[in-house]
Structures are given as C-alpha cells and as structure tokens.
C-alpha cells in the first residue's frame, strides 16, 4: 500500500478484518488513500484510527448506520448509484483499482475461493484490480452462485483471517403500524409470486403474515436476503416452483442477518448468490412472472415522488435497488411494486407527516412518480399508475394521517394541484373539497 492508492474493500460481509487492522497500523505512513466500500457491517479500523480523515478517504456506495455516522462526522462520503449498475461502473467508468482486499471462504480442491453470501460486484472489482488479496475465513459460508468466487490463479496474496463469526444484523421490532401495512400488502398476494423484500420491520411483518396466510409456491429473486425470507423458505412457503428464471432457486446478491440465516445458505443447493447486475437489472427481474417488490421510503410528496435515502442534503443510505425493482416488477407479467411507510414520524419531540406537498429541500428522489405503483401506509393502499395529478393528490391525502389531510388539501389547491375546473365544489371558507 502506498500513498495515493485506490483500495477496494468489497462490501458488507466481504470486508476484510485482518487486512483492515494492519492497514490502520500504517496510517501515519500514508496519505490520500481512497477506499471504496459499502454497507459496512461493523466498525472499520482505518476509520477509527483516522477520526479527521487525514490519511484515508472513505467512499460508500450505500451507507450503513455506521457509515452514516462517519458521513455525519465528515470523514465518509456517498457515491450515488443504482446498486444493480455498480459492476458496470467498475468495468466502464472507474479507473483501475490498485488493490482489492476481500474476505472469502477457503479454497476448494480445485483452487476456488468462494465469496460466500456476498456476490454483489466482487467479480467486477477483481477484474479491475492490479493487486488482488484474499483474506481467508472459515466463518464465511460456502454459497453456490453465478461467478461467486475467484480462482487461486487470479490471487496475488493470501491472508489467514481471524475466523471470527460474521457480523449479524438484528431484525428491528415489528410495530402495530408495520403489521397494519403488511396486512394491506398481504391482501394483494397470489400463489406463485416472486418476492423482492427490503430491510426493516415492515418487510419482516409481511413475511410473518405470509407465513400464516396459506400462500404457496412463492419464489425469491431479491437484492438482499433477509431472515424473514429465510423463514418463509424453511416453512416450505418458498420453493421457487413457479419461477420462470432459475426455478427452484432463491436468488440474491447479498445476505445480512442472523447466524442462523448464514448457516441456511451454507452449501445449500437451493441458494444462488449472484452479482447485482443479474439480481437487480429490470430486464432480468421482469423475466419472472408476478414479481412483488416491497420497499420502504421516508417521505413522499402529493404527486407520488418517493424520497427514500436522504434527510435533506444529509445522506442516510442510498438508492440501492428500489428504483430498479420498481421498474422490473412493473414490467413483470402480473407484477406489483409497493412503496411503504408509516404516515407520520417524530423528530426532536415533534410529530410530522411523511406525506407532504413538497419534499424536504435537498431530499433525493429515489423513485420518480412515474415509476411508483402501489403506495401503502397504515391507512390503506393505492395504485398511482395511470392517475392524473389531481387523482394522485387525492389518493395520497387519503393515505396521510387524518390530522394532516385538511392542511394537505388546502396546500394542494393553493398550488394548483387541484384546479377549480376539475373540482368546482371547492369551498375556500371550509377548506374542503366537495
């Protein structure tokens, strides 16, 4: 490692630990080292030893909670992306990487190291790297997949890892509002649906309801494999029997959850870990029928724009696969895309509506209004496809908390989202629409 180098740490469970500690120990000798990573599952030694960012510059494709704190501290930054396009970024737009260090399962008898449950864009990084270092750990499960490994002939250096258990991600508790939202979505499900489910209490609630719903022959083609999806698989509800693409297989790009989930992927022939340009690309997603894409957002405006990754100019996560799966699900025969959120949130002791006339200044639109299909809150579910602006406004107001609906109507009328010619019964004194 030299000053000015570009280094890649892969992402999530593929991040190296022994290498990270060794590099941190050399911080004082180095400057202007760029590091790309994503979805940090645990603290990174290079960031902890360099709290002012004098030696290492951290660039993340998708901020985890840990990286968000480092971004708030000004020592990490975000790279805007569609997660499914990242392999292409490395192959087409980014200069060659000086070093990649990636955690892998020990080599088999034929010399193949396995990436475990973290394919993501690992192959693209290796193709781009001048020097390839693998950190071998017996804690990494062996997961079948497409191009989910690297041959020893491609490796420059091998490091013995610490074999410590992989970091786990605890599932957030399921709230009553999560359950209500999940009930609205579960009512739309059909046997043979192919699932893409994001992270959080609400998606977990959907999985919980599906487990008891009598649904059958479900499939999985997702970006992130979660504990909720694995529980459906273990219950026999997910078998992939009706999938057109990779029938019988649970397709995913990375897993993050409990040790029990990691164990379930180990040498399991029903699991298929693939790069994100395979899992997320809309033209591939759509090849399965009845793709049901379920994701969360943090704020939507009255026209249906979903801002899911920032709080104003403060980056909190990333675009991820939300927009691509919304398009892929829509293009799928019988597919449905759901964007979900509680109707309100509380910040600094003040309750606010998540449905607003205008997005918070600086907020990033993750999924455009033209791509949003179903919107779900605890107050119901609406499909925005084909609706005019006034129809969208009324639909979104109906999903808002009752305490905010009258004010939203007034704002919509004053800003000509509800024109008088369309709604002549509007009474300016009562501030209601007849």
From TrEMBL:
Domain (Acetyl-CoA hydrolase/transferase C-terminal) ranges: 257-412
GO MF term (any one): hydrolase activity
Domain spans labelled Acetyl-CoA hydrolase/transferase N-terminal: 6-166
Cleaved signal peptide residues: none
Keyword terms: Hydrolase, Transferase
Pfam families: AcetylCoA_hyd_C, AcetylCoA_hydro
SUPFAM superfamilies reported in the protein's UniProt record: NagB/RpiA/CoA transferase-like
Protein family: Belongs to the acetyl-CoA hydrolase/transferase family.
Record protein name field: Acetyl-CoA hydrolase/transferase C-terminal domain-containing protein
Source species: Rhizomicrobium electricum
């Amino acid at each position: 490692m030299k000053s000015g180098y570009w280094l890649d740490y892969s992402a999530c469970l593929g991040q190296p630990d022994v290498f990270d500690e060794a590099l941190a120990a050399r911080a004082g000798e180095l400057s202007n080292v760029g590091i790309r990573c994503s979805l940090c599952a645990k603290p990174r030694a290079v960031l902890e030893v360099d709290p002012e960012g004098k030696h290492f510059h951290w660039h993340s494709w998708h901020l985890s909670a840990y990286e968000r704190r480092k971004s708030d501290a000004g020592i990490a930054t975000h790279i805007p992306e569609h997660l499914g396009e990242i392999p292409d970024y490395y192959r087409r737009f980014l200069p060659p990487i000086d070093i990649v260090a990636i955690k892998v399962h020990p080599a088999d008898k034929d010399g193949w190291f396995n990436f475990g449950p973290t394919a993501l864009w690992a192959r693209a990084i290796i193709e781009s790297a001048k020097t390839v270092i693998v950190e071998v750990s017996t804690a990494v499960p062996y997961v079948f997949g497409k191009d989910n490994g690297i041959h020893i002939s491609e490796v420059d250096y091998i490091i013995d890892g610490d074999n410590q258990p992989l970091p786990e991600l605890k599932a957030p508790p399921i709230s009553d509002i999560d359950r209500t939202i999940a009930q609205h979505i579960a009512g739309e499900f059909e046997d043979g649906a192919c699932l893409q489910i994001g992270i959080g209490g609400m998606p977990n609630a959907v999985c919980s309801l599906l487990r008891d719903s009598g649904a059958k022959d479900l499939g999985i083609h997702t970006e992130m494999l979660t504990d909720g999806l694995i529980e459906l698989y273990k219950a026999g509800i997910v078998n992939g029997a009706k999938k057109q693409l990779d029938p019988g297989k649970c397709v995913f790009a990375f897993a993050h959850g409990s040790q029990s989930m990691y164990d379930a992927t180990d040498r399991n022939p029903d699991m298929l870990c693939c790069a994100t340009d395979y899992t997320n690309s809309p033209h591939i997603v759509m090849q399965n029928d009845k793709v049901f894409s379920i994701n969360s957002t943090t704020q939507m405006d009255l026209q249906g724009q979903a801002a899911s990754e920032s709080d104003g100019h403060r980056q909190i996560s990333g675009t991820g696969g939300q927009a691509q799966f919304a398009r892929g699900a829509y293009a799928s025969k019988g597919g449905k895309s759901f964007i979900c959120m509680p109707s309100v949130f509380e910040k600094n002791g003040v309750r606010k509506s998540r449905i607003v006339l205008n997005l918070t200044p600086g907020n990033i639109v993750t999924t455009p209004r033209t791509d949003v299909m179903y919107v779900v809150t605890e107050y119901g579910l609406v499909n925005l496809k084909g609706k005019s602006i006034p129809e969208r406004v009324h639909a979104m107001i109906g999903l808002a908390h009752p305490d905010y609906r009258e004010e939203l109507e007034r704002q919509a009328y004053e800003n000509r989202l509800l024109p008088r010619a369309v709604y002549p019964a509007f009474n300016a004194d009562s501030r209601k629409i007849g």
